[in-house]
Predict the structure of ArsR family transcriptional regulator.
Amino acid sequence: MDSAVLLDLLGNENRRRILRLLSHKPCYVTEISEYLGVSPKAVIDHLRRLEDAGLIESRTDDQRRKYFHIARNLRLEVSVSPYRFGAKSAYPASRSLDMRGRCQHISLNLPGAADRDDGPAGTDGDAADHEVGFDPEDRAGTDGEPAGVTRPEGSSGSDDAVEDPDDGVADLAREYAYLEDVESELSLAQRWVHGRVTDVLDSLSDRLGSEADSRFHAEVLAAIARGNRDVRAIAGDINADPDRVETALERLADRDLIERDGRRWTIR
């Protein structure tokens, strides 16, 4: 989709709120109207514009109620600076994209990827052997650079002015070329991560049922994976109401995804 069209659609607050609501679960017009506090007629107009753009789709249930849900997995990137204004929208990379060799300046590593058969695959269908993100134990190198990012050869790594003007321009040119390459790779990596997040949430939705908020349940599971074991610790980690967290934990336990030992929860 053209980024200008997408920006125009998202310029309306109610359409943004509709998409936010539909990102949690499919809804019908009356639900959306009550959530927004606007008339059903206004909601239908917003839904029509979103549907015409291909952002949402609808289905009819047995009671002939029309449910709307998000149809596209789309990423919009906007850049504003004294030297650049631009926006681009693109679909995230597919799960079959092999990221190996695509990034020369950043390292991509997905812990446990080798144990999955639905990760970014090569031609043989095996999961790609890389991580997404930087090692939390090495956020920055000794020169203050983010881990996983390597400066170009000949770049000083310092923001101080260089004495020789000619050498300074050469360094700046190399730095700019390097940063352009990193920016392009980060954009690709973000699209890949966006696609993987959607895959994970789709899988979780299949296990929990379509009525569950898979994103919230995924955040609860991630908090447990990070070492939070009781309700209050999990709620604090994801900044959520403890009662809502407890309800989610019970649902996850009912699906045999987690288990409790006293007050401590662990993933099965």
